[in-house]
Every structure is written in structure tokens, then in C-alpha cells.
Amino acid sequence: MTRLPLFDEDEGEYAEVAVEMARSHDYITPTLNGSPFYEKPILAFWLEAPLVELFGTHPWVFRLPSELACLLWLWLIMAFAKEFLDKHKGQLAMLFCASSLGVVVSAQAAAMDGVLSALIAAQLFDIYRYFVTQRKRYITRVYLWMALGFLAKGPIAVVIPLLSSAVFFFMENKGLAWRRALLYWPAWILFLIVTLPWYVMQYQLMGKAFIDYFLLRENVGRLVGGLQGHTGHWWYYFPVLLFIALPHTPLLFRATVEGFINRQKEPINRFLLIWFMTVFVVFSIAQTKLPHYLLIGLTPLFLLMARYSESIKSIWWWLVLVIEAVILAYLPSQLQDIETHTHQAYISAMFSRLGEVIHGGYYEGLMVALLITLLLVIILRVLFRLSFLEVSRLSVILTSHVLLLYLLLPAIANLQQQPVIDLAHYAKNLNEVVVADNRMPSFAVLLGRSTQNRRAGPGELVFLRVDQLSDYPQHQVLKQEGGLVLLRVN
Q: Which of 210, 348, 387, 483 has its CA 20 to 30 A from that of 304?
């Protein structure tokens, strides 16, 4: 959370909007480089902007809400597991959640995916409690979490719980209880009290532009079209699931199969499977596809993995670690091939720094991590006398965590973000207005002032990518690094 710089585009975007909100004290209309920002609802900036005012613009400040949300997510999983499974399974489910690649990355990111995952989990857990007890207080809580989710990410926080619960309740022949919850007007009043004020004020200030961009383009548009080129085939999320569940992928598939086989024995298995499948199907149908969308569907899988944690042999854990090590070992050569064959000037220039990044201790770090794994196996086996399955699971989980946080992500940060940092520091010393588009918004955060997204005039500074140099035929390059350029227009 503290070691890595902000990553563009998403983290830089969230951060710069929060910075501008903190400066302007306008907590109604978020802006990016001075222009109204309609892509995200308001909750992220309400959480981050006060922290910016208190602590400044350090990367950890923007990531703190996500980190705390993921800790809440873990607590919710533990509380639910203790209530309906047992404490040990709750501990395992927390371990699997806290160490899966998708969650680890989400927890370190200045975005709302961790917050939404926690709120979706809170909703679905209370929906199951209502299913078991029929108590109305759980209905009220569901609508409160739903309202906060609506402020965090929009309509998806309503769609997923409603669809999941409808399928589950009607399959369990409890459709009447579901309809009672749906029509429980005190809960709807609470939902409207929480959500309506900001949406109404934003509409009054911005009018139809807010509706057209946020509700139609950013929500309906993601369902019917691939925004910003983020699209894929119907099977897109099958390989994504393999990736974001690492290093637990074999257990995930085995546990899902076991849960399906035993679905008739207990309603909780059916509930967890329906929850996951609802998320998977909805986002598979949607035309805009991104890997982190699937995070809100991982919670039920963590619980199933905890239920059937003994269903795979130790060799599967070690196979995952071998695959991870091989991929990390071969990744630099594959990126060098891309640099050689790509026709994209920015990608080629960025990857030209690969040798500098790799020679900074990449392979040495990989070897040290693997040696630590062997030492950990000995310690856990000899001193703590754990079973070989437990030793394998803990050793592989810890090593995967280390490889991600201390090897892969720092290398990516060096490759992609170090040029942004260097050019921002150079421009900061010039103390002039900088023209830039919104592709690298962390530049403005590092610069300490907003950039201007417009056509630059003679004598002005411009921050851009190398593939945009043709936009300014007459220019003087002040600094260039890793495919990014700071120039002055002649």
C-alpha cells in the first residue's frame, strides 16, 4: 500500500478527482482536470478527499479506504462462516480471500472494487440470514448495504443481490418471502434517504449531461457495448477466474464441483453457487468486460473452498507454484519479443526499459523467494509439526504473495509508472501550466496541480505519449523517458 506508486489509468484517475475535491471543497460534483467527472458515483471521493485534506497526496492515502474495506470483507466472511459453518472454515475462507491474487491487487488499489465486494457480501449474507430466520431487520440491513453500494458503483449493487436472491428464494419455494422483502416499504425509504440526495443534487447542477453519461453510457452502455475497447468473447471470464483465484485455482474448481455435487444436501451450497453463477452470467452477458468485475462473485467460492479444503492433494499446490515461477521467469523474454515486433510506438518505448528493470534484481528476487519457500517448509514441518497438506498450502500461499507484492508489481510499477514520476518531478520544477489528456492522470497528482485537457498553444508545456508527437509537429523535447514526453510547443 505504501511502497508502490499510483498506477494509471484507474488509480491516477480516482486520486486526481479526490485531490481536486479536497482543494475545491465541492463534495457534490467531482472533477478531473477541472471538468465534471461522471464515470463513477460519489462514495469513493467522499472517502478519499477528507483523507487527502488530512494526510496529503501519498499513495497510501488513496488506498486506505480500499484496504479497510477488504479487512471488513474478511470480517464479514468470518462472521458468516462461524454462524452457518464453523470457526475453522471461517479462518480458512479468510485465508483464501486475503491471499487470492484478485483480492490482494484490489486491496492495494485506490478504487472501489474492494468496497463494492464488501458491500455485496454484506447484502448477500443478510439475505441468507433473512432466508433462515424471516426477520425483517435483515431486510432493512440489506437495503442499507444496497444503498451504499449504489453510491459506490451504481446500479450493479442492486442488480446482483436482487437477481441472486430471486433465483434462490424461488428455487427454495419461498417466493412469497422474497416478494415481502421486495415490497417492504420502510427499507425502500431508507434506500432513498441514503441515495437520492446526491443523485438529485447532481442532476440539478449538471442536468441531462449527468444522466446521459453516468446512467446511460457508464451503466447501460457497459451492458450493450464494449466501452473503451474493453470487450471479449462469452468465455472471457473462464481464464480470468483461473488467474484471479491464484494460487487457489485447483482448489477453487474442485470445491465448486464438490459444492455442485452436494447441492441437494444443504441450502447453503445452493445459495453460494447461485450467488457466484449470477455474477458470472451477468458479466458474461455484458459487452464491456474487465477482470476485476468478477471479484464480487468470489466470496461464495472462498466459502466453498473452505468447506472442501481437503479435497485436493498437496501436489496441486506445488504445481501452482511451479507454474507461477516459470511464468515469472519467462515473462521478461516474452515482453522483449513484444517490444521487437509491436508497431505501437508507446509500447515499444516503454518495454525498451525492460533490461534496466530486470537488471535491478528481478531474477535474484525470484530465486530468493523460492529458497525462502524451502526454508518455510522445513520450519512448518519440523517445528510446528503441521501436516504436509497444511505445510504445502501455507508455503505456496506465502510465496505467491511475496512474488506478487515484492517482485511482479514493483517491476510493473518501475516499467510503467517511473517515467511518469520522473517527468512530473521535472515539470514541477518549471512551475508552468501543463497541457495533458487524461491517459496518465497520476501525472497531475505528482505535479501538485491539475493539468489542462485541451490543445496547447505556442510556448506551452505538453505531457503526452510518444505516439502523440505528430499532434505537435513543431516542438522542443524537454524530457523523454519510457514512451512519455514532456515538450514545449514552438
A: 387
